[in-house]
Amino acid sequence: MPRPDPARLLAAERLLRVEEEGAFVARLGIDREGAAPEAERRALALVAGVSRWRRWLDWSLQQFLRQPFASLDVELQQALRIGAFELLIEEKPAHAAVSEAVDVAQALLHKGAAGLANAVLRKLARARDAGALAEPASGDEALDLATRLSHPTWLTRRWLDRYGADATRALLDADNAIPRYSLRANRLSTTPEALHDALLAAGADPERSRWSDDLLTVERLGPAIQGGLLARGEAAVQDEAASLVVRVLDPQPGESILDGTAAPGGKAIYAAERMGNQGRVVAVDLHANKTRLIGTAAEAHGATIVEPLATNLITWDSAETYDRVLLDAPCSGTGVLGKRADMRWRRMPEDLRDLTDLQDRLLNAAAARVRPGGLLVYSTCSLEPEENESRVAAFLDRHPEFSHEPIGGEVPDAMRTPEGNYAALPHVHGTDGAFAARLRRSQP
Asked: Where are the domain boundaries for CATH 3.40.50.150 in the chain?
């Protein structure tokens, strides 16, 4: 029996975990003993790519099947998806993509599955090479666009209603692009200029961020970056959009800061760096293991003013108030679908109702922690108005002691909304999506 390519077999096994166990793509680490680094990198790319393009791959494969794609053995589904991804998205030569997928199907199942994979993928390859691939044409714009660009129909329909066809297509394209990594220089131990030079020495090709002078972007995180710069705390992985939320908070040296939903800790640590490690940053998270990780990361960065605390912000029994409070609320994550390849398939319309209720309760709890005259910053990585502007409006109705404070020069002009909030859009700014609003508590 032919031996399948280790990277493709590893990718198929991980895709099975996503399909059958609900595993999260971003959390799938090295789970095959002896996997070579190159095979590991390739497997990661295949899992993310197939997860991102799954709907379009399945639809395209269905054109050459007599039975529903969903009725196939789940192992065969993964082998076919990997082959289709290499053919349609990566545009690899047909002989390599087909034969490798066939070997994976045989290794996971049997010769019969391999034969079916061979027949279907060869037909798909011939259609691709002849320029005869079918396109969705149901007449329903949202359904067809969602199928072709591999997103949920309900979400695509929402965005079409809000942004229009051209902007929605650009947003879906942005979600499907291979993301770059943003690295934030730790100004407690280095400078962006020194980080740039260190990245060059590590074999990377860094680019300066368009939006923040603390950040650089790279195509991938090689061993010299992960085991060197990141391990030593000289840099942290943080998207440009997320880092700018801390700019909206604008923490000052000597102040007391509360990050009410802090895990994984990037914003709390960045706040400490912006404060020159002078003052106090209390980083709250519900889970003790996550707060331990925040502490470990803060120690690596030399951010000694960060105080991790495992508690539920909503039920926290404390009367202490703070100069500035950040509530980076749990949300639908529709602004980070490009980074979290499988999240688009995990969200449902009804999730918004449950999330907005949680966001309101967290906002109420966060408001109680703001001293008179202090600042509350509410932020999400969502693009949905229900989780952003609507939550701010509802909060102000419930809390007349707070007023909306337009942001000024804390973020670039291009990211300030007409209402005075911060908004980053993947298809406009080339970052993750993010939202933040400043809410000032009145003096007695």
From this structure: 240-441
Does a cis peptide bond (omega within 30 degrees of 0) precede residue 264? yes
Q: Are 61 and 80 in contact (CB under 8 A)?
A: yes
Q: Which residues is 422 bridged to in the sheet?
A: 416, 436
From the number of C-beta atoms within 10 Å of its C-beta (0-12, 13-18, 19+), residue 22 rates as exposed
E-only strand ranges, 286-352? 306-310, 322-328
Which of the pair, 257 or 229, is modelled with greater confidence?
257
All CATH 1.10.940.10 domain ranges in the chain, comma separated: 6-129
Q: What is the pLDDT of residues 96-128, one digit of tens each?
A: 899 889 989 998 888 888 899 999 999 999 999
As annotated, the active-site residues are 381
Q: Which residue shows structure tokens 């131990």?
A: 189
Q: Is the pLDDT of residue 440 over 70?
A: yes
**Token code pair at residue 400:** 């007349």
More confident of the two residues 258 and 231: 258
For residues 177 and 426, the answer to whether their CB atoms sit within 8 Å is no
Distance CA 238, CA 349 (A): 28
Q: What is the pLDDT of residues 295-321, one digit of tens each?
A: 999 999 999 999 999 999 999 999 999
CATH of domain 181-237: 3.30.70.1170
In CATH terms, the fold of domain 240-441 is Rossmann fold (3.40.50)
* Cα(444)–Cα(439) distance, integer angstroms: 16
- State the DSSP H helix or E strand holding residue 435, giving kind and residue range, or none if neither: strand 434-441
Residue 364's H or E segment, with its range, is: helix 351-367
Residue of 242, 351, 343 lying closest to 27 (CA atoms): 343
Q: How far apart are CA 359 and CA 385, in angstroms?
A: 13
User: Tokens for 187?
Assistant: 């100004």
User: Tens of pLDDT along 361-381?
Assistant: 999 999 999 999 999 999 999
Task: Output the CA angle 77-123-341, nearest 5 degrees.
Answer: 40
Give the pLDDT confidence score for residue 34 in this predicted structure. 54
pTM of the model: 0.93
328 annotated ligand-binding residue: yes
Domain 6-129 architecture:
Orthogonal Bundle (1.10)
Whose CA is closest to 421, among 410, 442, 434, 436? 436
Which of 283, 329, 338 has the alpha carbon at shortest distance from 26?
338
The per-residue pLDDT for 30 is: 44
Q: For CATH 3.30.70.1170, list the domain ranges present in the chain.
A: 181-237
